[in-house]
Amino acid sequence: MSIAITCHNTSFGTAGQIDPSHLVDIAAQGYKSVINNRPDGEAGPTQPKNADIAAQAEALGLQYAYLPVSPSAMTPAEVQEMNRLLKTMPGPILAFCRSGARSTNLYQLALQLG
């Protein structure tokens, strides 16, 4: 099953909610790292759990980070952590949340930190 990815540049892309089965396609597209910006349970019990996505990412050899961010209240600490992940995780990196917008906003704020 394919997932729509917005490529911001050659080293970073964003997507809406993924499930573990999407990671095969994500890895096949060349992504080396995945950042989950969506808190567990935000969409109720049908939302794929972070632990399940992380386990599949690890099985496929992808780096994985869980940085859950509230869509209405990003904190400076979250922006700093995103900046650190962007600098330390192997690229290209895919970040995801519900629609991709939160991950995009977090990415843009992190870039401002230099």
Tell me the helix content: 25-40%
Q: How many structural domains are formed by the residues? A: 1
Strand order of the largest sheet: 1-2-5-3-4
Total strands: the figure is 5
Low-confidence stretches: none
CATH architecture: Alpha-Beta Complex
Mean pLDDT: 95
**How large is the count of helical segments?**
4
> Based on CA inertia axes, which overall geometry fits?
globular
CATH topology: Protein-Tyrosine Phosphatase, Chain A
- Within CATH, the superfamily carries the name Protein tyrosine phosphatase superfamily
**CATH class categorisation:** Alpha Beta
Could you explain how this protein is built, in words?
It is built from four helices and five strands, in the order E-E-H-E-H-E-H-E-H. The chain has 114 residues and is of the alpha/beta class. The chain has one domain: Protein-Tyrosine Phosphatase, Chain A (Alpha-Beta Complex), CATH 3.90.190.10. The protein has a five-stranded mixed beta sheet with strand order 1-2-5-3-4, sandwiched between helices. Strand 1 and strand 2 (12-15) form a beta hairpin. Helix 3 crosses helix 4. The mean pLDDT is 95.
